[in-house]
């Protein structure tokens, strides 16, 4: 281990001596070596953070994107601030399984980490729709899209994905921004939890046409989202779904998994960034928190 780390440090120093500190130009360059430790080290080497007076922290992710995060976030933000990436195994899997010109949905986008990654992968020929119901997070998401010059590829909507259309749906809000901020009045506090209201749509009604990739990060609302995807699945033969699954947070997880297994082979993205078979029993009893890969297409 020490010898491998010494070689890695020497390699990084040689790169710095030749080209200096710089952003990674493309994800292709980022993944060119195929060595996970080296890639993570290169990303981490390029991390920078700046605290701002509006309750956000500006950081650099994946070696190139600039991103505003919530200073009070103890979930995803520490990983972005210190490491510059989030769930590397899923990041690598997406890089292998998303192509130029494709159409993608990012459901529960938060700051837009996956949206920015997907935009880089589909390119100007493709399109990404990012959905985030939380008004504070949606504001940060929009800033991140504009800051990185990706407004032509990513469109954002402050909407919750659900089983059907709702004029206003109450959704949980883990992050609310500063107590005296612009969005403070948008949240209610009940029984120790925060909520906000947002319009809701079924993914099958979001737009016409086929979709290639859906990334779902709304574990507690997963069944609602899946219930509103039937038409989208029917008309999208190349659809690939990445679903954050948490058996303890998902409402009626057995029913949702049964419905999904009727349409797709059940697979999960393992720590080596490969999709592997699993069963409903495995997901409910042993592998209770994971990222599911759902598609008729074989993963790369």
Automatic annotation (TrEMBL):
Superkingdom of origin: Bacteria
Lineage: Bacteria, Pseudomonadati, Pseudomonadota, Alphaproteobacteria, Acetobacterales
Protein name (record): FkbM family methyltransferase
UniProt-listed InterPro entries: SAM-dependent_MTases_sf
